[in-house]
Amino acid sequence: MSIIFERSFQRAFGTWPLQGEVLHRAVLDATAAGYRHFDTAQMYGNEAGVGAALAASGVKRDELCITTKVHPANYDPARFLASVEQSLAALGVDRVDLLLLHWPVPEGNATALGLLGQALARGLTRAIGVSNFTTAMMREARALLDAPIACNQVEFHPLLDQSRLLAAATETGIPLAAYSSIARGRVFDHAIFAEIGRTYGRTAGQVVLRWILQKGVATVTMSTKPANIRANFDVMDFTLSSIDMDRIAALAATGCRVVRNGPTPGFPVWD
What is the pLDDT of residue 265? Predict the structure, then answer.
């Protein structure tokens, strides 16, 4: 089983773009709500803050799943492993649980994927994965890496048709994890989520997150409001009907993509 589908880790707390005391408080509130999977990245510039907050939380290290992502600027063989070691130092850990390539690069991903495998072999991470990979890139990663690939973290929510990526996840055995799970709030423009939520005694946001989980996709959510943090976590004790799942799926025709480009404008070309 992929690390992200160990039950405690299916719901990750995202930390972008949090910094300073706001980050510290949010992470503490997230651990209090029950979160044990925390997502950061070199690009976010907050690994040290995440590490300090987790240390202050009192949660035992072996109960946590810590994900970080390598910045594309560090895909060079001279910098990759050193940058991962710097991330570990900032986080205050001897290894992370999940190490991802944050973005694909136009010149190709073979070198970075090989370096990701080296990080795993050296014990710098418990598992490896990718982020923002297209279906073709997922197939390439599966062909180039012998080790299991724990996830492809991508934009995933009901307003965007990601059926091709879901099919590739089944084909390659690389599960998906969802960032921008509520489309940066745009899901709330659609009354159907609140309507369905009333049927189950749940909020619109909880309906969205439950839909994602029932699609077989892990979630990464962020909030700084304690009530919302708790609500985002408490989505495991109800099940949407197949009718409601299909009603929500129809909104994919909206075609709402909130993240259009990576660090290189116009790349990748999304499925």
Answer: 87
